[in-house]
Structures are given as C-alpha cells and as structure tokens.
Design goal:
It is a single chain. By secondary structure, the chain is of the alpha+beta class. The chain has 2 domains: about 80 residues, 2-Layer Sandwich (Gyrase A, domain 2), CATH 3.30.1360; about 160 residues, Cyclophilin-like (Cyclophilin, Beta Barrel). About 25% of the residues lie in helices and about 25% in strands. The chain has 6 helices and 13 strands. It has a 7-stranded mixed sheet. A hairpin with a 2-residue loop joins β9 and β10. α1 packs across α2.
Length: about 250
C-alpha cells in the first residue's frame, strides 16, 4: 500500500495498479478499519477502484499523524484477519426494447439473441467498485466478456434516469437523467440516489449487485416511466468529459 499527499488535509492510499475483487475487498476492509480506529479524526473516506482517499480534520491532526494512524489501522486489520462482507442488492430491470435502444445491436454484435444477453446480464453478481461521476452512479464489474461492448462513438444528449447500461466490462444504472455514452439495455425503477433518504444510496462500494428481469407491468407498478426515455445522439462530441466518464 502506497500513501501519497492528495491535498492540504487529504491522503490517498494506493492498493494496486488495477482493479480486482481482492483489491476491492482490501479497500473495503481498510475503510472499515479506519472508521473504527480513527473515525473521530476523519471528515470523509472515498473508496475507488484501487485506491482510498482519506480526508481528515486539519484542526485535529496533520499528514504525519494520519500516516501513522493509517499504518496502525492497516496492521490491526491484518492481525484481526477480519473480512468485511458487503451486502447483496437485487435491482429490478425491464429489458423491453422500448426501454433498451442498444440491446438489439449489442446482441447482434455479440452473436447472441436478445434473450441470451438478458440471461447473461442477470446471471452475474457485480461488485460495486466505485461511485461517481454523479451521486449514486455505481460502477459495477465485471460484465461477462460475451456481452462486453465499447462506449458509443457518439454519446447521447440525454440518458434517462434508471437506464441500465454496459460499457466495456462494466455495467451501471444511471441515477438521474444526464448525457452518456454507455450502451442502454434496460431500465431500472429503483432510485439510485435520494438525498432525503437514509442511506441516500441503495449500494455502497464493496456491495454486490444482481439484476432481476421484470415485466413491463411490473416496471410501471414500481414507479418506472417509459415516455420520452431516449434522446438522439449528440451530433458532435464536446469537451465535457462525457466520453471518458459516462
């Protein structure tokens, strides 16, 4: 584990150069250890694919002190040999073509039927590796290689709230309407972010997510909406970061 300065009151812990279930588990364990061991000195902990940002209260400690506490927490975590297990969350998804503008092309390009794509997508449990570019946008991996698909060459202006999407070996649910370049294969009626709820998100880094196929009627009964779902692609890509982040 490498520790680097990330700001006047922040350090970032690097666990590896690439993501894996083992790395994600280590980050989850370390997050819990820090919350337990030095929680009163922290402002926030921000886990990501292979790193953990530690934001501390500069009125109570400094970089050197926090480095020492991180090392102690790491030693305590190893000695305890406690593995923090995340929750398994099931998200409903409607895979009807009216809700999935890219599903048919994805299936064709993969040499699969639409039914096979749905079966493969719902068969996996996906680990929550990170949350962002927007509140509640959980990056889930890894998608079965048979249905992995590159981002769209031209992102859409508007991707609807609840869109279930695939980009490369990752899948996700858009928590709100936004621009986006992922392949849309369905819609989820579950709110992925609600600032008035506790917790505000149904998933956290380290959790596992499983998708469950539901019918159109079930989707609507759960509060899902179908009208005006998908906008036309952008005519040209602008430097908004969308092509990389979304």
């Amino acid at each position: 584990m490498k520790i680097q300065v990330a700001g006047e009151n922040a350090l970032i812990l690097y666990f590896a150069q690439s993501v894996s279930d083992e790395v994600s588990q280590n980050i989850q364990d370390m997050t819990m250890a820090l919350q337990t061991f030095v929680g009163d000195l922290l402002i926030d902990l921000v886990p990501s694919y292979a790193s953990l940002m530690v934001i501390f209260n500069p009125l109570r400690c400094d970089h050197l002190k926090v480095r020492q506490l991180i090392r102690q927490a790491s030693t305590k975590r190893v000695n305890d040999q406690a593995c923090v297990k995340g929750s398994v969350i099931t998200l409903p998804a409607y895979y009807g073509l009216e809700a999935a503008p890219d599903l048919q092309d994805l299936a064709k390009n993969a040499g699969l039927s639409i039914r096979q794509v749905i079966e493969i997508h719902t068969a996996m449990e996906y680990r929550v590796y990170a949350i962002g570019f927007a509140p509640g946008f959980a990056y889930l991996g890894e998608v079965d290689a048979r249905i992995a698909a590159p981002r769209l060459a031209t992102p859409r202006k508007k991707v609807p709230k609840g869109a279930v999407a695939i980009a490369d070996r990752q899948t996700a649910v858009y928590p709100a309407q936004s621009p986006g370049g992922w392949n849309l294969i369905g819609l989820c009626p579950q709110d992925m972010f609600n600032p008035n709820a506790k917790p505000s998100m149904p998933v956290q880094v380290g959790d596992k997510v499983k998708f469950e196929s539901i019918s159109r009627d079930e989707f609507l009964s759960l509060g899902g909406q179908l009208s005006g779902q998908v906008n036309e692609p952008l005519i040209e890509m602008k430097q908004t970061g969308d092509a990389c982040a979304t």
